[in-house]
Amino acid sequence: MLTLLERIAFVLLVLVTLGWAGYNFWLIARAIRRGHGEFPWREYLKTWQARIRAQIVQVGLNYPVFQNRPRVGLLHFMVFAGFSFYFLVNVVDFVEGYFGFTTLHQGGVFALFNLAADLLSIGVLVGMSALLVRRFIVKDKAFNIRENVLLDPRVRAGAIRRDSLIVGLFILIHVGSRWLGSAFRLGQTGQPDWSAPGANVVAMAFANLPEPVLTLGAHVTWWTAIGLIFLFFPYFVLSKHIHIFFAPLNWLVFRERKLEVTEPAKQNGKEGVGAQTLQELSWHSILDSYACIMCNRCQDICPAYAAGTALSPSALEINKRYWLNENLRAFSGGAASPSLLDFAITKEAVWACTTCGACVEVCPVGNAPMVDIIEIRRALINEADTLDANLQKALENLGKQGNSFGQSARNRVKWTQGLNFKIQDARKEEVEHLWFVGDYAAYDPRGQALTRQVAQVFQDAGLDFGTLYEAEWNTGNDARRAGEEGLFEQLAEHNIAALDKAKFRSGIITTDPHTMNALRFEYAKLGKQYTVTHYTQVLMQLIAQQKIAFKRKLNYRVTYHDPCYLGRYNQVTQQPRQLLQALGVELIEMPRHGMTSFCCGAGGGQIWKGGAVPGERPSEQRIREALSVLSSSNGNGNSPASPLLFVVACPKDVAMYSDAVKTSGNDGKIVVKDIIELVAEALQEPILVTPDKTPLTQADADARAREAELA
Ligand code: SF4
Ligand code: SF4
Fold this sequence. Notes:
The chain is mostly helical. Among the domains are: 69-238, no CATH class; 387-546, no CATH class; 550-711, 3-Layer(aba) Sandwich (Rossmann fold). Helices cover 56% and strands 5% of the residues. The protein is built from 33 helices and 11 strands. A hairpin with a 6-residue loop joins strand 10 (687-688) and strand 11 (695-696). The N and C termini lie far apart (95 Å). The mean pLDDT is 91. The structure holds iron/sulfur cluster (2 copies). One iron/sulfur cluster binds next to helix 14, helix 19 and helix 20.
């Protein structure tokens, strides 16, 4: 039990430090409220189940922390679990210290409490020590941020390392003291208590210490355990470890669709001007910087960072946070921040983002750095900032011709030439399905051949479909992500009017995942709800209805690339794989697949920009990744003559990866194929060449022909 003097000192300490920390908390809350947008309480209440689930899965089980760094995730979980339980431990210790009550030797629920506290303390000490070793001795490269990225000078000088050291030592001293304190108290009683086995072992070592030493030990460790919390509190509020509070809050108020581009805010009466300054970002974006744990997971997975550009999504969050900490009182009191381009991110970095959404998907605290980048792009476009010439041209083409290729609307149906049937015109005759073809599938010469194959397969399967012909325009998905909100609206209005006039009974089919995303989610914000399916989903439905029956089993070793806008944005990851399975190919997954797929580098307007990047292009890195898994796999005994295939399901990917195979010097080693090419091949009659009329695959037939040629 504490002495009277100690109790008075403790009360004073609590009043001073809680007052100080509370003031800083209040400033942070005001700073967050300076961001635009309201708290949509009603929406939160409507989706309370999802929010509770997020608290259990994302926060309670630390699921996203485990996801892509499982070992670090386990160490973090040990610290998290112990620390969470320590909320109760600290209350009990306070009561014990103040009122002389003890949980030792009590049995029952107290024995369980002591056991949990003892074991979880050991977990925290082991976990925290290992995390410190990782940062300070192993010096994991994941903590580095490249020199060409704009980073707060204090962070460059080691501020995050210092912060981590202070907090790490606090945790070790706090938990270690509490654990040692139990041992001193057990020593004082002179009786073993196996409900706290760890502390009990240490207490045995204290057996011969005189009583005054044990009493002093118990008092000192109480202060270094409980008193230290309050001493640390004002620092903690401004440290990166405030995420303990803001990360759960971030998951509580998460946006229903995490990858959604936010609706542009009205500022000074102007619509859609984006964000030049911190206060022009949403309150969500400011909250993000306080939730950030500065783990660099988003940077690890960012294709723009991997390509050597100046973009690091983690640096963006870190810079926002350090600026806020430095200017907290002024900013929360209403002072304006300077331009985000002065302290948070460079213009080069802003234009390097592919809007792949990987940073949003991977973030363990639910941050969305990509959304900030799009807001800044909006502001740059609004200010008529000088754009990359190719991007500028593509945006102009979209505005004038409704397609990024700058071709006439009539050419949109050129791809139909060569088909032996007429595509129905949904503007004139009613069809079951409306096929929204998309720019790349319609205009790109490589895409056109594939689009014809899709049409042929649909036709042969008896699918009743038609298109909008030249009334179809680009959906504006990528124009919006390039920051061109006005252009997006113009394109969307045109398409919605065309779709309103078209006659189709069921939903929309598309070959293009970017198109799918805009029609499915972004037009919904404009009041139009469409059911949109990707052609791989349609093909699977046709197989299930037995309208498609493959005649050949394909003997290829393949890997499949999930397009960002199909997998991450639209959660279509299973159907393409089921299709590959039905085709009989041997699918070997790349390490980054499904929701953690690595972007080809085309999205968000990047495909229009062209130009060089400082390092290896994301698409070239992806081809290397594919070759490495395809060639290192033992496979299932496929013919060695089978080409290795890189299978895609997006017309832009066909263009991106066909180029990447050439530019990375891998011509002949791997072939890029759209999934429809495999479907078309498997639908052909088998080639019967053997005397016993055994059907051969095209690949086997090709291999035999090559062998015969060599012989
Ligand atoms: S959206 Fe993709 S490219 Fe953009 S910052 Fe996030 S991970 Fe990087
Ligand atoms: S934004 Fe998320 S993933 Fe990126 S550093 Fe912060 S916490 Fe980690």
